[in-house]
Design a protein that fits this description.
single chain; alpha/beta; Rossmann fold; Recoverin, domain 1; 3 domains; eight-stranded mixed sheet; two-stranded antiparallel ribbon; disordered N terminus; Dynamin_N
Amino acid sequence: MFSWLGTDDRRRKDPEVFQTVSDGLKKLYKTKLLPLEEHYKFHEFHSPALEDADFDNKPMVLLVGQYSTGKTTFIRYLLEQDFPGMRIGPEPTTDSFIAVMQGDVEGIVPGNALVVDPKKPFRKLNAFGNAFLNRFVCAQLPNPVLESISVIDTPGILSGEKQRISRGYDFAAVLEWFAERVDRIILLFDAHKLDISDEFSEVIKALKNHEDKMRVVLNKADQIETQQLMRVYGALMWSLGKIVNTPEVIRVYIGSFWSHPLLIPDNRKLFEAEEQDLFRDIQSLPRNAALRKLNDLIKRARLAKVHAYIISSLKKEMPSVFGKDNKKKELVNNLGDIYARIEREHQISPGDFPNLKKMQDQLQAQDFSKFQPLKSKLLETVEDMLANDIAQLMVLVRQEESQRPTQMVKGGAFEGTLHGPFGHGYGEGAGEGIDDAEWVVARDKPMYDEIFYTLSPVDGKITGANAKKEMVRSKLPNTVLGKIWKLADIDKDGMLDDEEFALANHLIKVKLEGHELPNELPSHLLPPSKRKITE
């Protein structure tokens, strides 16, 4: 009797079974989240419905910046080749959105053809109309970098009201659409013109809620002296702090991202280190793509839940016959109070609510009588998805990551410094002397030997206690000295001979000069007499 109660309860407790993360995301969205979105007109207020291509596409990188900050040049630098439709110049040259993607042959696909291709994640862009689609193209070309990621080049952002009006489409809304779907947003600034125009400020605000994807590049930094660069960097951080409302500081990469000689080479090492950090960040995107899509689905589900509560509350307050228009105006004006009530009743974080002003503007054009009342079953399904199914997908994400070989972006500029003497830090720090015929430590060994023989060696070796007395003079922490000891004590006998002691001092010098210690001793640092031991 009442067996149906138990069946329903069991169904809610047992999470769905998925074969892959991508299939799981598609199924969860279509069966559990999409019904809630459609019931409460989520797509008219926020974001269009997701399609299979949104879950299957490669990681995308969105470049945003004012004109002549080097966005197109940055893409060319990564790919190490020109792409169809590319135009570079000091004036505003790129007047279109260009999706640079992998293709068997070089060519350009116009916007109107792109939005009817089910294999591309751009179908929902047709909502922005012909004014936008005429300025949207896909540049396809065979390139190893594009086998792992796609890059979206955007028109240079201009200052002044006139240019914004003449675009013919909502530029900030298009960028917001892309921001929801890309894996990384790179804001480019020119070290010579840091002013953030009204339109750029509006764009950055439109990217709110996507701060976790945002990175900043201070480009063309080789054109100014070190002292000026410090001032420019400080001014940039101050300007961003006024627009981007996050407690954390956005990561800023400083460099010159093109293949020309550095004009002022004083900060070459800094630029190399910053470039490697940025490249590592971009290279990690394929590995983290599934996790990013899962995270975006969770964010979307939370917003859809709040939206359902807002719409159903408005429906509940509406009169059935008379005074509908006056009541609608009253509800729109008092939307802030409705937000506060929903927040209290359902224990929802204020950060989950949509922008109040934008929501009020959108509600003006809506017919409240067509809104739906609260349907608990739809909300319970989404709650169940967040509580159970998402947890299972998280496990599947980790399994897929461990089963696949390390996924990284390869080719182009990413491999330019991977091998050979131009790799970052090659021949520096612990890598010093890597190509020398002689043992690099031998240069300073006479000086280290003088200290060694003052430490009472017995049978050509000093004890750990005696070595410690000398090593702690470096003032390095014990954790670092412990690592140096492990690297230097090659025969693992708990003592150091003269070569091992010299090696320990060499590693101390490397650390004091600001370089990192290796996890394993490189072969060129092995003392000549110990090379047979390790073979």
